[in-house]
Design a protein that fits this description.
heterodimer; A: 222 residues; alpha+beta; Jelly Rolls; 2 domains; five-stranded antiparallel β-sheet; B: 216 residues; four-stranded antiparallel β-sheet; 2 helices; 8 strands; 45% helix; 30% strand; membrane (chain B); endoplasmic reticulum (chain B); Transmembrane emp24 domain-containing protein 7 (chain B); glycoprotein (chain B); GOLD_dom_sf (chain B)
C-alpha cells in the first residue's frame, strides 16, 4: 500500500513538473530588444534565474505554449562590467551564478532567434523568476539530504536568513566606506579648487597690469 | 525504508503542487526605465489572494515615476503619478491577469532605475503539516515568528540599501561635477584674461594711427 502511494506520488510529481506552466511574473519583449535587470548583492551570494518564453502567434491570436528553436541570450556582468556569464539558452532556461565581488550585477536577456522574423510583429512573452541568496535554498531537498526533523529544518532556515542579513550588513559597511571616501574626495577637491582659483586670479591680474603698463609705456601714453 | 522515504515525499509532493498551482510567488526586480518609456509586468492571480506591490525609484532625475495597477477587466486599482516610493496591498477580486506599469513618459532625458517587489499570497509553508491535527509547538511557533521578523528585517535592509544607493550616486555625481567645473573654470579664466589684454591692445593700436594723422 505504501509503495503504491509512493509510486503514484512520484508519478504525479513528474507530471506536474513537466506539464503545468510555472506561475511567475511575465513581460513582453520586442524582437532584438535587450532587457536588463540589476541585482545589487553582497559577495558569495548565489543567484538563480529561471525564464520561459512564449511566442505570439498572429494567426491564432494568442501565445503559443512553447516554441522549440527559440533562444534567449543571457549575459551577466559583474560590478566592474566584466562579463561573468554569456550563454545562449533555449526557449526555457535556468541560469545560476555566484557573486565574487559585492555590488551591482547586471543580468541582460535578449532574443537573437531568427525564427521571430517569420512571425511578423513578433512579440515575445518572457516569464522570469530571479531568486537571490537564501531564497535559492530548496528546503525540502535539504531536509531529505540531511535527514532533518521539522524543528531542525526551521532552525536551518533561520540560520540561512541570519547569514544573509550578516552578508548584507557587511556589504552595507563597504558601501558606506565608499560613500565616505567620495565625500572626502569632493571636500578635498573643493578646497584645492578654491585655493587654485584665487591664485590664478591674482596671478592673471598681476600679469595683466604689468603687461598693459609696459604696453602703454611703449606707446608713450603713460 | 519505504516508511521513512514516504514521510518526506508526501510533503514534498504537496509543496511542489502548491507551487505549481501558483498559490504564492514573490518577484523582486530592479530595472532601468529609459526616458519616455513605459514598462508593464503581468501576473496571473487566483481569486482571494492577498497581494502587495511595493516600488521605489533608485536613481534618476527627481526619483519619481508613474505607477498603475489594473485588474483583468481593466479597472484601475491603483494609480499614482510621480511617486518616489509606495506600497499597495490588495485582495484579488477576480481570477485572471493583473497588470502593473511603470511610466517615465513625463521625463525628457532622465533614465530612471526602478525597484519593485510584487508579493502574491503568503510564503509556501516549509513543511505542510498534512498529518498534524494539533497546533504548532511553542518552539515551532517561536521559529515562525522569528522567521517573519527576519523577513521584515531583510525588507527594511533592502529599502535602506536603495536609499543609500540614491545618496551615493548623488555624491559621486557631485564629485565628478566639481572636478570638471574646476578644470573648466580655470581654463575659462585664463582664456578671458588673455583675450581682454589682446582686445585692449587692439583699441590702442587703432588710435595711434589717428593721432599720427591728426598730428601731421
Amino acid at each position: 500500500m505504501e509503495m503504491k502511494t509512493l509510486v503514484s506520488c512520484v508519478g504525479f510529481l513528474l507530471l506536474f513538473v513537466w506539464l503545468s506552466p510555472s506561475q511567475a511574473l511575465y513581460f513582453h519583449i520586442g524582437e532584438t530588444e535587450k532587457k536588463c535587470f540589476i541585482e545589487e548583492i553582497p559577495d558569495e551570494t548565489m543567484v538563480i534565474g529561471r525564464y520561459r518564453t512564449q511566442l505570439w502567434d498572429k494567426q491564432a491570436g494568442s501565445f503559443l505554449p512553447s516554441t522549440p528553436g527559440l533562444g534567449m541570450h543571457v549575459e551577466i556582468k559583474d560590478p566592474e562590467t566584466k562579463v561573468i556569464l554569456s550563454r545562449q539558452y533555449g526557449s526555457d532556461g535556468r541560469f545560476t551564478f555566484t557573486s565574487h565581488t559585492p555590488g551591482e550585477h547586471q543580468i541582460c536577456l535578449h532574443s537573437n532567434s531568427t525564427k521571430m522574423a517569420l512571425f511578423a510583429g513578433g512579440k515575445l512573452r518572457v516569464h522570469l523568476d530571479i531568486q537571490v541568496g537564501e531564497h535559492t535554498n530548496n528546503y525540502p531537498e535539504i531536509a531529505a539530504k540531511d535527514k532533518l526533523t521539522e524543528l531542525q529544518l526551521r532552525v536551518r532556515q533561520l540560520l540561512d536568513q541570519v547569514e544573509q542579513i550578516q552578508k548584507e550588513q557587511n556589504y552595507q559597511r563597504y558601501r558606506e566606506e565608499r560613500f565616505r571616501m567620495t565625500s572626502e574626495s569632493t571636500n578635498q577637491r573643493v578646497l584645492w579648487w578654491s585655493i587654485a582659483q584665487t591664485v590664478i586670479l591674482i596671478i592673471t591680474g598681476i600679469w595683466q597690469m604689468k603687461h598693459l603698463k609696459s604696453f602703454f609705456e611703449a606707446k608713450k601714453l603713460v | 525504508m519505504a516508511g521513512s522515504s514516504s514521510s518526506w515525499l508526501l510533503p514534498l509532493f504537496v509543496q511542489v503542487v502548491m507551487m505549481k498551482v501558483g498559490l504564492s510567488s514573490a518577484s523582486e526586480l530592479t530595472f532601468e526605465l529609459p526616458d519616455n518609456a513605459k514598462q508593464c509586468f503581468y501576473e496571473d492571480i487566483t481569486i482571494g489572494t492577498k497581494c502587495t506591490l511595493e516600488f521605489q525609484v533608485v536613481t534618476g532625475g527627481h526619483y519619481d515615476v508613474d505607477c498603475r495597477l489594473e485588474d483583468p477587466e481593466g479597472t484601475v486599482l491603483y494609480k499614482e503619478m510621480k511617486k518616489q516610493y509606495d506600497s499597495f496591498t490588495f485582495s484579488a477580486a477576480r481570477n485572471g491577469t493583473y497588470k502593473f506599469c511603470f511610466s517615465n513618459e513625463f521625463s525628457t532625458f532622465t533614465h530612471k532605475t526602478v525597484y519593485f517587489d510584487f508579493q502574491v499570497g503568503d510564503d509556501p509553508p516549509l513543511f505542510p503539516n498534512e498529518n498534524r491535527v494539533t497546533a504548532l509547538t511553542q518552539m515551532e511557533s517561536a521559529c515562525v515568528s522569528i522567521h517573519e521578523a527576519l523577513k521584515s528585517v531583510m525588507d527594511y535592509q533592502t529599502h535602506f540599501r536603495l536609499r543609500e544607493a540614491q545618496g551615493r550616486s548623488r555624491a559621486e555625481d557631485l564629485n565628478s561635477r566639481v572636478a570638471f567645473w574646476s578644470v573648466g573654470e580655470a581654463l575659462i579664466l585664463l582664456v578671458v584674461s588673455v583675450s581682454q589684454v589682446l582686445l585692449l591692445r587692439s583699441f590702442f593700436s587703432d588710435r595711434k594711427t589717428t593721432t599720427t594723422r591728426m598730428g601731421s
